[in-house]
Amino acid sequence: MDNLNPELALEGSALLEKKYLSKKDYVFFSLAQFASSAITGLVQGYLLFFYTVCVGINAQAVGTMFLVSKIFDGANDPFMGAIVDKTRSKWGKMRPYLIFGAIPWSLVTLSLFIPVTGFSMTGKIVYMYITYLLWAVFGTIVIVPLSGIPAVASPNNQERGKLISISRILGSIGEQSALVLISVGLLISKNYTNVYLITAIIIGALAPVLMLLGAFSIKERLEPTTETPKLLDGFKYLFKNKPFLILICANLLTFFRNLVSAAIIYVVTYIFSNGSLQIVFALPGAVASMIGMLFAPKLNRMMDSKKLFIFATVWHSVALVIVYAVYMLGLNHWVAVAVFMFIAMLPVGVLNVVPHLMAADTLDYWEDKTGQRCEGMTFSLMNLRSSVSSGFKDYTLSFLLAFFMFSQPVGYLNDHSPEQSDFTKTGILLIFTLIPAICNLVSIVPMIFYPLSGKKMEEIQTRLAITREKAFLDANKEELLEEASIAIEEATVVESEGN
Amino acid sequence: MKRVIIISLILILVLSICMLTACTTTDESKYNEKLNENVDKTIPVLHDLIVELKKDGFSYDFNYTYVFYDNVNRGTPYQAGWQDGDWYVELSDGNLSYDAQLDGWKITLTRYEKMLKDDYVKHKDKKNYGGKFSVKATEEYSGVGLLTCPLYVDYLLDYENLQIQRDYITNAEDSSKIFNRVARVKTSVVYDMIGQAHTPDYCSKNFGEDLDYDWNNVSGMQNTTATFTYKKKQMNLKQVEIYKENVISYYVKNNVVDTSLVLKADVVSYEKVIFNQA
Q1: Nearest chain A CA: its distance from B34 CA (Å)
Q2: Do A418 and B121 touch (CB under 8 A)?
């Protein structure tokens, strides 16, 4: 700000205040995010358990499938990003994919939860690979553009932040919808297979409706850059945009944090012997996470993103250690564990929002530096990171289950649910607490080198606001002059009539 | 001449592929090979652990649970076997100790009244079960000569010479787990229609995770999983968990759409005993 002409600085500040989004935009887009997160929450949260416990596929086979498929899924994301960046349609760059991808994605989601218990083990594994890979492809077609919409919905950075925050909150609620449905289902029936299938049917039916609603209501307001980025340039972009590269590396290492939510179903089923208790563990955690998300933009004004990321990570790890200590010291009733888990989940909401705000900052940094905006590539790479992290999480979980000698049901028995040994149960508790607590701290290391502090971002965004306004004026000079002449003529007529 | 060379090459290729296929072991062979390798590794470990136990003496707190469903039988093609009923638990806990020098053993035991499984699950992890389980009896036994001990010792001593039951072993492993080593072995005994015991391959097809049984000729089975946690340096056995599932085959509705009765099998009761070093 010190380097800018005071008049231009004032003009820049005024431009940053202009509003573009209506309440409808916030609501409907957030509902689309809710639906998308409901699908991903169901699959990411419960598919591993479904495959290992209901269908009876070996945990390591499932983990390997997830790792391979999610890396494949993640690798697709930049291609999807490049396709999005090259797309020009009457709906914009991103919305066409949401419109045409929502229904197929929902149908494939349903197919994941069909219990193929009658197949041989080879048949089960083949079915698992085919259906999951199809799910991943359609998911990429929908999620990459969906993630990018907030960045083009408004030139106002605060509105973008608010849209990201609100949609992430709704998304967080959506992620828990499978939890609520499954928990209620398990109160009615102890048959996990049927409960999971019915949940998939409900989510598969409602999700496309909400996604289509969101797609048709929101508009893409930022014009794409005049030069269409080339595919290879997009990959080079990651390594040239150093802040973005650091952000991706730090976030890649946060996959240990996701072990906590992935382990809940195992904790309630095998440690507390009550599957429906997952709602008690996961829902307060989700509420805590939402509270964190709600406060994230406000906290971001008090503390820059980098400090916020580090603070939230340390808080989460320390709190998980406390949960472990509480259980081991004898407070092993589920109520005590759930209460302390609520505290542990508060920073997770912050950690869900801050990276997306930082990603938008790296976009602004790059535009300030080069004049180019690669929203599609940025958010596809964020999704790549998310997919790879998720793959690592599932592989690590399945590896740890095998390490702790998790007993799986045998196929020749009708409804087999073997007792887990004390050693295995201790292992499940460690997966839920100490292991993510210690390993998640590694993500702080790359974040120490992230350069985009609060003050630096203010300067970048002010420069950008002025540049964009100048570009708008240049592009619409004739129209604006015409409007100005008409306004002068009308003013002259009114004055004459007045006289 | 060229034609001869090409045909010869093709024949050599075909022959090589056939020989390669013939020499390659089948999946089942590989599975059995791996199983035998693990069994050979685990049996001596268990032998050494029990020998060390008998040599040094021991004191273990134990917890014994017997969980059963109270209303099930095989049924007939016209009558389903799994009837309306409930799951019950019989619980006992106490201490089992052995003084190697005196060759004397002692058991102190508390037996609890039979209870519903749901009630057991609610209070099992509380200190002193939250006072919710009614005591049926407290007993104390002692004697000389480990083999004369009437209760629970057999659960441990059975694993001293597992080589005798080698054909019943379906899984075995022994590996390092953080600060301890854990050895686990699974056995399976299959019963025919007159109650005679057989090895796990009796009236079965496929292998490994695809294993299936002919329930027309198999009345039931007992599957046991024993997990030993120990310190390798001193062969110090810290914890033993033994879990025995009792399975019977019974007539049940095929599925919601096809309601004809078919034979399936499931766990009707299980015993779980945990020994923790006192």
Answers
A1: 16
A2: no
B211 neighbourhood in chain A, CB within 8 Å:
410-412
Cα nearest neighbour of A331 on chain B: B126
User: Residue A403: its chain B contacts at CB < 8 A?
Assistant: 177
Find the mean pLDDT for residues A444-465.
Answer: 85
Whether residue A414 lies within 8 A of chain B, CB to CB, comes out as yes
Which DSSP letter does residue B159 get?
T
Per-window interface: A 258-277 vs B, CB < 8 A: 273-274
| B272, β-bridge pairs | B65, B243
Q: Is A115 helix (H, G, I), strand (E, B) or coil?
A: coil
How far, CA to CA in Å, does B169 sit from each of B13, B31, B190? Answer: 42, 13, 12
Under an 8 A CB cutoff, do B184 and A273 touch? no
**3-class state of residue A494 by DSSP:** helix
**pLDDT tens by residue, B129-152:** 989 999 999 999 999 998 898 889
Q: Tell me, what DSSP letter sits at residue B79? A: B
Element at B6 (helix H, strand E): helix B2-23
CA distance linking residue A350 with residue A359, whole number of Å: 14
Question: Buried (b) or exposed (e) across A30-61, using 16+ Cβ within 10 A?
Answer: bbbbbbbbbbbbbbbbbbbbbbbbbbbbbbeb
| Inter-CA distances, A189 with A16, A195, B256, Å | 54, 7, 15
Q: What is the band of A2 on the pLDDT scale with cuts at 50, 70, 90?
A: very low
Q: Do A405 and B247 touch (CB under 8 A)?
A: no
Whether B200 and B170 have beta carbons less than 8 Å apart is answered as yes
Q: What is the DSSP string of A152-171?
A: HH-S-HHHHHHHHHHHHHHH
Q: Do A413 and B267 touch (CB under 8 A)?
A: yes
Interface contact B274, partner A, CB < 8 A: yes
Q: Does B263 touch chain A (CB under 8 A)?
A: no
The token pair at A29 is: 């887009």
Helix-helix angle A177-188:A23-49, to 10 degrees: 50
Q: Write the ipTM.
A: 0.86
- Which helix (DSSP H) or strand (DSSP E) does residue B93 occupy? strand B87-99
CATH of A22-221+230-452, one of 1.20.1250.20, 1.10.10.10, 3.40.50.300, 2.60.120.10: 1.20.1250.20
Residue (of B142, B159, B160) closest to B151 by Cα position = B142
Subunit contact A423:B247, Cβ cutoff 8 A: no
> What distance in Å separates residue B174's CA from the closest CA in chain A?
11
Put simply, the answer to whether B266 touches A273 (Cβ < 8 Å) is no
Q: Where exactly are the structural domains of chain B? A: 26-277
Q: Which residues of B touch A123 (CB under 8 A)?
A: none
Cβ within 8 Å, pair A120-B210: yes
Q: What is the mean pLDDT of chain A?
A: 85
Phi-psi region of B178 (alpha: psi -120 to 50; beta: other; left: phi over 0): left
